[in-house]
Design a protein that fits this description.
Largest sheet: 2 strands, parallel
Structural class: alpha+beta
CATH class: Alpha Beta
Number of domains: 1
Strand order of the largest sheet: 1-2
Shape: globular
CATH superfamily: Glutaredoxin
Number of helices: 5
CATH architecture: 3-Layer(aba) Sandwich
Radius of gyration: 14 Å
Oligomer: single chain
Order of helices and strands: HHEHEHEEEEH
Length: 107
């Protein structure tokens, strides 16, 4: 998540034409505290039962949590890009993500 924070201005356009949501099974109180402490400029959503992860195929039933799947959803509501899992420590992973965001934002 630190990489997302650190690249938020360039990769996620400071939130212009892009909404970044991080979904986790962690309790909302833990997410709020973590987001505040780390100064994340985007929103975290608490999904303790994994409903969103199950809908999008990101749920790991063995561990009862979501895996690190990343989705780019276009303005039309359709999934435009999937990285399963997203390798957040690999700089090359951000090239594909940036391209998908640019295409979805109409650029």
């Amino acid at each position: 998540m630190d990489a997302y924070r650190d690249q938020y201005a360039t990769l996620f356009r400071n939130g212009k034409k892009v909404v970044l949501l991080a979904v986790s099974v962690d309790p909302d109180t833990a997410l709020v505290s973590w987001a505040r402490d780390k100064q994340y400029p985007f929103r975290f959503l608490s999904d303790p039962e994994g409903k969103v992860g199950k809908l999008y195929g990101a749920w790991e039933p063995k561990y009862k949590l979501d895996n690190r799947t990343l989705f780019v959803v276009g303005p039309d509501g359709k999934i435009a890009y999937v990285a399963d899992p997203f390798q957040e420590i690999d700089p090359k992973a951000y090239d594909g993500l940036k391209g998908a965001i640019d295409r979805s934002a109409g650029e």
